[in-house]
């Protein structure tokens, strides 16, 4: 974030065109100001003026579907596929490489759809604003776009009506994959169970069996009704000129509309007379431990700021850490392995909800879980809540109020999502950003007596609007779903005449023709290479040696927070400890230390820090792919007044961890449940790791640390009862960690940088050299893993060159070019997969191509194979320039005070200095099409390739024709 001059702000009552300023509110916690405006047509606008050069925009529409055809979700896709001013087939994806955006997306929730973006370039902001406004309010809504991304009939061979008929569509395939994930099934069932009479009972994303009921006319009507200024909530953030933005919105959108009334209000859900139970299933084979049980209640309106805060705090008190009074007895009961999905307070419904339960539950245990939840809550009310737990939770809210971070999602968009909740439901958006009054009221009431115990009694135990939601795996559901799809196709096509079949062929060919048409992307706004910053961030920091440790101190405007990272470069590890390392990192911050059991330590962490974590990394030098090193990084944050306490917590966790067999067993089961659930959502990432492990030493390590190989290792430990052996390996690993080379990075305000870190640095007394692991590559040829997924995740990986090699920038540009100009069109638009792309890890030297939620396997690998001939088609300066722009974004990530110094310090110590990075940028900006062809010919060759996929079946019967034979294993 750079410092600049904020444009002058209006005053309450002032008219800005047809907008009236309704309110101007100071936001001291974030050093900003909120301006709320309303237009004559009913449009609302919230502007957060703040000294931040990362500008943000969003337009949100309340969307309340009345069925599960996925109309809101499909519309979200189709509006971004061509508009009046920008009549290209896919301006959204076309803008990605023409922009230096730090975020671009669109998303559909249960009762709203939003279109946000952010960028640090002012011209880029107005370019994207123009595209987003035209797309949302004036989309072309082509019939072909509806068929491509929504649903369509298509013959296996599109021009041959004698081949089998099937359903196809990007959203259709996306939701087939989503509804195979237990977490997604749980969320949809949750809304339907608690709010059966409201829009939340519908699947806003679309249920695969209902999506074919959506008509093209229904899609257009939904847009006409919902995407109108009277139903629009605009948002801007940063050092943007509010008056100019309002003029743009007025000129290009609002001036073209007449008044309209739309009722998108959501009524109260009638209260239940008594508790209910709802049973649902998902396609899963783990009948022993694949279930979930959750007990859920409907609460009061989520727009009530006082109620919302109190339930949020109470949720954190009850469930916020492993020692919390509701979490601990649930986990220690042994009935399940981890808290159920959706546990905690949720304010993303008009009426809030609280839920808690367990996942990893065996069949027939629902009653036991329900009784345990209710009995535990009864005991909490009887015995009371320790005031120290409440104070620790309030401490967490204080940190959340102060922290300004772009980690994860840009801060400007985090602010948008915070205010959207109350705003969309008719509440005060300020309450999503400022909690001072509510916190003061809560503290006053807490001083006078029992607050949370009464809430538990009245809001939960005495509340008849309760549902016990039981999610169970069904090993036969996938097969039945496939059969049901075939029957659906048969039923819908039962009356088809030859003319109907000819129409399907004709429409398929028309869609193919549209997809093959060359449009003129020059109608879209763009940036040029001159807009790419030639330099990288050089935040100042100092270094000092403390014994074996190197300490970096980074002055940053952190708002009174202190961040401490301790990266330990590890000595050489025996092979068995490499597989142990990720389990150690997961367990060490969730166990005991220095004479404190995990309960006491968890409460200490909650009381004096904003959280601590441990993570494993593998890195190398800029000039080598084989000279690797492993590191274990311990990180934490705290209010500056607790800086000493943070250092002591990290010291104890690093130097004196204590692992209890029973607790470790619980943690391993939690991790196993989480990894299993992640496969059907992150299948392409797993496939990419599995492919990379066949060609790259670093990839081989990453696969063992966080890939499907790590999942198998963990499964063997849990199911083979090898915890005692693991404890012995933990003890050996701890000794090697303390013999490692520590690099500490302290980020704080100038006045807080003098924090004494000798408590940490003094624990490292060894003299072992930093290790250089040399793992063997994954053998066995192409790898396939079968999982409970009706769609596939395909990947190919290539070993290439290190960072300083002249071809590395060309490979980075090539990945962006193939993604935007080739793979998205072939795999998503034509193939119907939800995603298809290419990536290049410049530091790891691995180039990948992959697909996500893909109905094809063989066809996709043919697309990967044909990437090289694509470079010989009519590509020119525009495509290369856009690919360079897209590639440059990966070299200039969005940072914030908590991350900018950490990245610089550790990057410098690894050899990725500003000079090395800026030389890379210079080469990147000079890449030509000939460079791309040469780099691809030299490095993306069969002998450098590894193949992997995750799917629901053995792929070999269909891939043998490609010369690919996969080694198949179950997940």
Draw up the topology in text:
Elements lengths: L14 E2 L2 E9 L4 E8 L4 E7 L4 E8 L8 H8 L12 H5 L5 E4 L2 E2 L3 E8 L2 H16 L5 H7 L2 E4 L9 E4 L1 H9 L3 H13 L21 H11 L6 E6 L3 H11 L23 E7 L8 E11 L3 H15 L7 H6 L5 E2 L4 E3 L4 E11 L4 H18 L3 H16 L8 H14 L11 H13 L3 H10 L4 E8 L3 H16 L5 H19 L25 E5 L2 E7 L5 E9 L5 H14 L3 E2 L4 H11 L3 E9 L7 E12 L3 H13 L1 E2 L2 H18 L4 H10 L4 H10 L1 H12 L3 H16 L2 E8 L9 H4 L21 E4 L6 E7 L8 H23 L4 E7 L4 E7 L5 H8 L1 H4 L6 H15 L8 H10 L4 H11 L4 H11 L5 E7 L4 H4 L7 E4 L1
Parallel strand pairs: 4-11, 12-17, 19-25, 26-30, 26-31
Antiparallel strand pairs: 1-2, 2-3, 3-4, 5-8, 5-11, 6-8, 7-8, 9-10, 13-16, 13-17, 14-16, 15-16, 18-19, 20-23, 20-25, 21-24, 22-23, 27-29, 27-30, 28-29
Helix pairs in contact: 1-7, 3-8, 4-17, 9-12, 9-14, 11-15, 12-19, 18-23, 18-25, 21-24, 22-23, 23-24, 27-30, 27-32, 27-33
Structure in words:
- The strands form six sheets. Strands 1, 2, 3, 4, 5, 6, 7, 8 and 11 form a nine-stranded mixed sheet that branches. Strands 12, 13, 14, 15, 16 and 17 form a six-stranded mixed sheet that branches. Strands 18-19-25-20-23-22 form a six-stranded mixed sheet, sandwiched between helices.
- It has 34 helices and 31 strands.
- With 971 residues, it is an alpha+beta fold.
- The radius of gyration is 28 Å and the shape is globular.
Could you write a compact summary of the structure shown?
The protein is an alpha+beta fold and 971 residues long. It is built from 34 helices and 31 strands. The strands form 6 sheets. Strands 1, 2, 3, 4, 5, 6, 7, 8 and 11 form a 9-stranded mixed beta sheet that branches. Strands 12, 13, 14, 15, 16 and 17 form a 6-stranded mixed beta sheet that branches. The chain has a 6-stranded mixed beta sheet with strand order 18-19-25-20-23-22, with helices on both faces.
